[in-house]
Design goal:
- It is built from 17 helices and 14 strands.
- By secondary structure, the protein is an alpha/beta fold.
- The protein folds into two domains: 4-207, P-loop containing nucleotide triphosphate hydrolases (Rossmann fold, 3-Layer(aba) Sandwich), CATH 3.40.50.300; 218-369, P-loop containing nucleotide triphosphate hydrolases (Rossmann fold, 3-Layer(aba) Sandwich).
- The strands form two sheets. Strands 3-4-2-5-6-1-7 form a seven-stranded parallel sheet, with helices on both faces.
- The protein starts with 9 loop residues before the first helix and ends in a 5-residue tail after the last helix.
- Bound molecules: adenosine monophosphate.
- Adenosine monophosphate binds at residues 21, 24-25, 28, 47-53, 308, 310, 336-337.
Amino acid sequence: MSFKALGLSEPLLKAIRKKGYETPSPIQAKAIPSVLEGKDVLASAQTGTGKTAGFTLPLLHLLSENPKQKFRPIRALILTPTRELAAQVFANVKEYSEFLNLRSAVIFGGVNQKPQIATIRKGVDVLVATPGRLLDLQNQGALSLKRVEIFVLDEADRMLDMGFLRDIERVMKLMPDKRQNLLFSATFSKDIKKLAYSILNNPVQVETARQNTAVEVIDQKVYRVAKGKKTGLIIKLISEGNWKQVLVFTRTKHGANKLCKKMISAGITAAAIHGNKSQGARTKALAGFKNGSVRVLVATDIAARGIDIPLLPHVINFELPNISEDYVHRIGRTGRAGAEGQALSLVSADETSYLKGIEKLIGESIEVEIVEGFEPDPNASTEPIKPGQNRNQNKGRRTNSRNSNSKGSGNSRNSNRNKSRNRNRNTDSKRN
Ligand code: AMP
């Protein structure tokens, strides 16, 4: 199967050749023809599968086929949950539309809105946006969505995790009823299905193999270790392995900062990205990580979402996520674009139930190793530490209900997620 056989126009094929893509990825082969036919699409795809090109290429094809309108209203809207993802999708849109007469722009919060407004005023065909800034500019009368023909909701599951449901509903009301809709999501919870039903009309469903395919090409390992020895172990692994590009996940922003400082003290160049960092600091950290001047990027789940770093060799979970699906998202950073990767997790006794939940989700048990001098504490409790109950922070912010363990009821897990979502939304509105 070639890109040409999918029916894409020559200017797009030229841009694809320039990118060096030879064959369409499975999600592209499945999604592109349906989008070109003008159908609504519900696609299950994780980052790393080539999903961005899966919706961007046919979208650009369709827009370029239809005659341009005089004042260049926004004809395609791509909504993403995070600033980083918005920036990356926009970069892709720019690349793929290089040989077309189409204009695009990106808007997200945390940066000056004036240049964004100025760009939109000149007229753009494709707008990539995060929900907060989009609604903000719309409220100010700086943009209109009344002429949108194609709407893409990217990483819909993360949108809901971040509490953007209301914003999405608001955005929907601003667009014409008659339009083409594409919804991409890595996971399909009940809430996502409900959202999909409310947005899509008779959608074509596109799936790439099983939901957790990304896991299969990744070499996974668990290091059982005492909680207090994790920092020493991670420094040892990175130093002795002489790893040059390592993405490390922590559960909290505070934890990310703390670990980053310890790495730097140990002589490892490191930077942290999370919702409390300014957009400038995040962009700088990411650029340093990509160009190799920063060896370790320490990130929280939300900040790391959507980061596009091809050929990322190592991902380390300094702490396991308390939501199993996040593990799949995290390790999906490795093995991108066909390259194999290694995903390591440092697991202390209190994370035992998270590990079980993850193994259940991915349908396999992960190989365990214990490093001499960094053994687990045999007396440590296996009770999970509640989200927000980091011993060093968030005092007084505890939730009362017991945190989910893998055997716990889905309701308790959801209620914790909702609490944490609401809390995050209140305390960290600049996250996207
Ligand atoms: P995505 O899942 O959209 O984040 O894409 C993951 C990575 O795969 C990006 O670095 C893309 O540039 C790359 N990519 C997308 N499509 C292809 C393709 N057909 N062949 C090779 N690489 C691709």
